[in-house]
Specification:
- α2 packs across α3 (about 55-80) and α3 (about 55-80) packs antiparallel against α4 (about 85-105).
- By secondary structure, the chain is mainly alpha-helical.
- The chain is elongated, with a radius of gyration of 23 Å.
- Helix content is about 75%, strand content about 0%.
- The chain has helices spanning about 1-30, 35-50, 55-80, 85-105, 105-120.
- The longest helix has 27 residues, at about 1-30.
């Protein structure tokens, strides 16, 4: 009986300490969890609809998006106080993503993807200079 009670006490102590260590780990690295499946699916579905991917391409792109989003969260958390380094790391991540996309996508799909990216990056210019000088 004493052996059973001491074993139970030891097991309870180990579980409690392991739980405390996991809480500390999450407090130290809040961005270390993997991105949600819904977030990965939304991004992949958006790209898939735009580029009309086949099933094999969709599966490979989903895996690639999972890695990209996890790394993106990690970079943003890790370099939150160092904007120049964060921006450089994000540019590096984007170039790695595009290199991997070039292995998955056909040349025409890659061209559509790049055109969509350029359109998103280009700021809109006012048509008749309203609110501007001159």
């Amino acid at each position: 009986m004493k052996f059973l009670l001491s074993t139970f006490f030891l097991l309870a102590t180990l579980v409690t300490s392991a739980n405390a260590q996991m809480r500390e780990r999450h407090a130290e690295l809040p961005g270390s969890d993997a991105p949600s499946a819904a977030r990965i699916d939304d991004l992949t579905r958006q790209i898939s609809n735009q580029l009309r991917l086949n099933e094999a391409q969709y599966i490979r792109l989903r895996a690639l998006n999972k890695i990209k989003l996890a790394r993106l969260d990690e970079i943003q958390w890790q370099y939150q106080d160092d904007a120049p380094t964060r921006d450089a790391k994000l540019m590096e991540l984007e170039s790695q993503f595009e290199a991997e996309c070039s292995r998955i996508l056909t040349p025409s799909q890659l061209s559509i993807y790049h055109n969509g990216q350029k359109r998103e990056e280009t700021p809109e210019v006012p048509v008749n200079n309203e609110g501007g000088i001159g």
